[in-house]
Amino acid sequence: MGARREVARSRRVALAVGGALAGGVLTTGLLTGRSVAARSVDPADPWRRLPDVLDRIRPPVFPDRVFRITDFGAVGDGRTDCTAAFRRAVSACHHAGGGRVLVPPGRFATGAIHLLDRVDLHVAEGATIAFSPDPAAYLPVVLTRWEGTECYNYSPFVHADGRTDVAVTGAGVLDGQARLGPWESWYADGGPQHADQLRLRRMGDEGVAVADRVFGAGHHLRPSMVQFHRCHNVLVDGVTLLDPPMWTIHPVLSDNVTVRGVTVHSVLYNTDGCDPEASSHVRVTGCRFDTNDDCVAVKAGRDADGRRVGVPSEHIVIDNCLLAGRWGGVTVGSEMSGGVHDVYAQHCVVNPAGFPGRYPVKYPLYVKTNKRRGGVVDGVHLRGFTGGGVERDAVFVTTDYNGEPGDQPVLVRDIDVRDMRLDGARAVLHLVGLPTDHVVDVRLRDCAFTGVVSPSTVEFVDDLSLTGVTVNGQPL
Q1: Distance between CA 301 and CA 134 in Å, rounded?
Q2: Cα 384 from Cα 388, distance rounded (Å)
Q3: CA-CA distances (angstroms) from residue 403 to 10, 256, 371, 432, 434?
Q4: Rounded distance between C-alpha atoms, residue 144 and residue 155, angstroms
């Protein structure tokens, strides 16, 4: 086996711009002794499964009852604390059998809003929910996942836990006002978040009971903005979300989730647009992302704690979105230890001219994991992506993310990209596996890349197929 690894190390493949494949493709096979469950794959057309996936994603429907927050004491002057009024309106709606909690035009200041079964928080056009910059407004702590590890922490700004039929809808605005709070100082320039981050990760690796992983007051783990935790039948529709403190829309351990027609503008670091985590049958459609991190990032838990929970993200659909963000357009990982299966992304525009973001997307497709994470990414499919101005590589896949060491088997396989048209990128491909953990089965078909300035990189990859692919007008 040692000699075989030496051969693999020496056979690194470069794809020249406008040139041929040099040296062939690594086909040494999977590492002997690893066991990965087989899945039936139709390499000719994995998209045949998409209609069945979409048929199972159906937004919830709510009773025709309206509960105006102003009838429960809310004042839309931007100063009055409306936290109690939101709580009373949500409770009344829930106990009546469900309906719409209506936020009328005005600016309503509040702390955490907790949704209950069959409640649609509807933010009307001209209405803004302005979230407090005071961390104390998000206490007491709630059970959550923070960067893929379970703990008790500050409540997300809008939170639902274990609920059925919940929604945030409307043409209004949710303003996180994160720049007014201490959130940025917690992580910037070696801030105090780092110590809590390491402490939580150690707890996850060492198997500390979740009940004993209590953060919140006196600690510095920023909450996400909108989180649905262990929920069934979820809808986020039409709203604009501004200035979140961390991840913006975060479904966790949830199923049948629709995120439709939302706009995200995030400023602080680590403020992804939408992060489906350990969730199934999720559709992100018709959305606009201007983020200071990934636009849509599919996750499934981190390291030992993610493997302990062991719930994958699967049957995720991302379509007809505008993608502008500092890192990935469509990202998988790096928190993916529970596994990711069957991600479909289609008809999205990267760095659209009509929706300029603060940062250009570095990677339209960004798949990242390592041997500390472990687990399997099985089935990531893109088609019909257009745009340009990509800061780095069009397709970036690695099993050696950040060079983090570990002893867990990890596998990325079945990556299918077709009908991609991009003008402007550093390179087309960055596909990097490990000698022990190859990237397997990557297919590009009918793609055209222009304005590419550097060759691609392919290392430790099995079964790379390029059909009808051109770079700067030349066949690859």
Answers
A1: 28
A2: 13
A3: 19, 35, 9, 11, 10
A4: 8
CB neighbour list of residue 407: distance below 8 Å, 6 or more residues apart: 371
Contacts 24+ apart (CB under 8 A), 130-136: 130/78, 130/175, 130/177, 131/157, 131/174, 131/175, 131/176, 131/177, 131/225, 132/81, 132/177, 132/181, 133/177, 133/178, 133/180, 133/181, 133/182, 133/183, 134/181, 135/181, 135/182, 135/217, 136/217
Examine residue 224 and say whether the peptide bond preceding it is cis (omega within 30 degrees of 0). Answer: no
DSSP state at residue 70: G
pLDDT tens digits for range 430-475: 999 999 999 999 999 999 999 999 999 999 999 999 999 999 999 9
Q: What is the largest CA-CA distance in the chain?
A: 75
SS3 (DSSP) at 302: coil
User: What is the Rg, in whole angstroms, of the alpha carbon atoms belonging to the chain?
Assistant: 22
User: Does residue 42 register a pLDDT over 70?
Assistant: no
Average pLDDT, the chain: 92
DSSP-derived secondary structure letter, 71: G
Distance CA(83)–CA(102), nearest Å, equals 14
pLDDT of residue 21 exceeding 50, the answer is: no
DSSP per position, 169-223: ESSSEEE--GGGSSHHHHHTTT-THHHHHHHHHHHHHHT--GGG-B-STT---PP
Distance (Å, whole) CA 341 – CA 328: 18
Q: Which of 426, 428, 341 is nearest to 385 (CA)?
A: 428
- Which token pair is 92? 């009344």
> Can you give the pTM of this predicted structure?
0.92
- CA separation, residue 255 to residues 45, 235, 283, 284, 335 (Å): 25, 11, 10, 13, 19
Domain ranges within the chain, ordered by starting residue: 2-60+132-475
Q: How far apart are CA 236 and CA 257, in angstroms?
A: 8
Contact call for residues 119 and 146 (beta carbons, < 8 A) = no
Task: Report DSSP letters for 448-466, one per residue.
Answer: EEEEE-S-EEEESEEEEEE
Residues 6+ apart with CB under 8 A from 2: none
Closest CA to 309 of 229, 232, 220, 216: 229
User: Tokens in use for 175?
Assistant: 């303003």
Count of Cβ atoms closer than 10 Å to residue 375 Cβ: 25
Cβ neighbours of 445 (radius 10 Å) = 16
CATH number for the region 2-60+132-475 comes to: 2.160.20.10
Residue that has been written with the tokens 């993916």 in this structure: 336
What DSSP character marks residue 20? P
